[in-house]
Specification:
5 strands; 3-stranded antiparallel β-sheet; two-stranded antiparallel ribbon; alpha+beta
Length: 69
């Protein structure tokens, strides 16, 4: 039930505290946003591949795998 602004504030706090990768999932439109710093964000959906580099080297999955049918 958090607003988008609340989620973004929390993500910014985590990144400022040293978190290296944050994923934010939006189930309603099946999007994943990958934050790798305050100035670097990537959007993934469907069969797009997600990774958690450099935190989990070699980890890969499809965005769609995070949203069960």
């Amino acid at each position: 039930n958090d607003t988008a602004a609340q989620v973004q504030d929390r993500v910014d706090d985590w990144l400022r505290a040293g978190t290296r990768v944050v994923w934010v999932l939006y189930p309603s439109n099946r999007n994943v946003f990958i934050f790798r710093g305050l100035d670097r964000v990537e959007r993934r959906s469907g069969d797009d591949e997600l990774d958690a580099e450099p935190v989990l080297p070699g980890f890969r999955c499809k965005a769609s795998d995070l949203f069960p049918e």
